[in-house]
Amino acid sequence: MAAKKAKTKDKNYQVKPISWIFYMIVLPILFTAVLIVVIMQFILGFNVFGDVTKWAESIPVVRHVLGIPNPPVPVPQQVASLKKQLKTVQSTDQKQITALQNEVAKLSSELATAKSVSSNLHGKLVSTTIQLKAAQVASATAKSEAAILTNMSSNQAASVLQQLPFQEQVQALQAMNSSDQASLLSQLPVNIAAKLLKAGG
């Protein structure tokens, strides 16, 4: 009976491992740390609290948890950052200005080319119009001359035809029908008739 009571007492006095760790390891470490901080702060004159505060403020997570605002950026660093931003903006603006200048030069060149082409086309149009009018006048003249020559006798028509410029002779013959041409050419000298036939195609 006495042995059972002794065993029960031994069980009651067994120390739990967590309690043992707390009292034998954690508590002495905390006491030692507090003692060292007090000695360094108040006896040796070190600014332990200030150093710990600075260290804590340098960690973003701790600063966020404690609600400490971000430290202000030093003025030289702000100036350097602003200078860098200004250079970036100036560089971008200069690139845009250069690109726009190149675009303007390109468009100016294209405009000058277009004006030159337009001027050439206008010149060709005027020249073609003049040629067309001249051809129309020549055709009308040739038809008129052909009508007059057709109403004459072949002998008279041949005599009058030889008085006209060579090109008008050709055009007048071309304006006639084939029977009138044959009748008129038969009254002309052979060499002139041959030239007119060759020129008239």
Write down the domain tally.
2
The average pLDDT score comes to 80
Provide the β-strand percentage band: under 5%
Return Rg in Å.
60 Å
Largest sheet: none
The CATH architecture name of the largest domain reads Orthogonal Bundle
Order of helices and strands: HHHHHHHHH
Number of strands: 0
- The low-confidence runs, each spanning 5 or more residues with pLDDT under 50, are none
Helix content: over 70%
CATH hierarchy class name of the largest domain: Mainly Alpha
Shape: rod-shaped
Describe the protein in words:
This protein is mainly alpha-helical. The chain has two domains: 15-66; 75-199, Annexin V, domain 1, CATH 1.10.220. 84% of the residues lie in helices and 0% in strands. It contains nine helices and no strands. Helix 5 crosses helix 7 (166-175). The chain is rod-shaped.
What are the salient characteristics of this protein?
single chain; 201 residues; mainly alpha; Annexin V, domain 1; 84% helix
Outline the fold blueprint.
Layout lengths: L1 H11 L4 H27 L4 H10 L2 H7 L8 H77 L2 H8 L4 H10 L2 H8 L4 H10 L2
Write a brief caption for the model.
This protein has 201 residues and is mostly helical. It has helices at residues 2-12, 17-43, 48-57, 60-66, 75-151, 154-161, 166-175, 178-185, 190-199. It folds into 2 domains: 15-66; 75-199, Annexin V, domain 1, CATH 1.10.220.
